Amino acid sequence: MTFWDHLDELRKVLFRVIAIWFVLAIGYFIAMPYLFDSVILAPCHNDFVFYDLLRYIGTRFNLTDEFFTQEFQVNLVNINLAAPFFIHMSTAFWMSVVTAMPYLFFEVWKFISPALYPKERKGVQKALIIGTGMFFVGVLLGYFMVYPLTLRFLSTYHLSTQIENVISLNSYIDNFMMLVLCMGLAFELPLVTWLLSLMGLVNKSFLRTYRRHAIVAIIIIAAVITPTGDPFTLAVVAIPLYMLYEMSILMIKDKEKEIEEEEE
Question: Which of 100, 203, 244, 260 could join 189 in a cystine, given CB atoms 3.0 to 4.6 angstroms apart?
Answer without folding.
Answer: 244
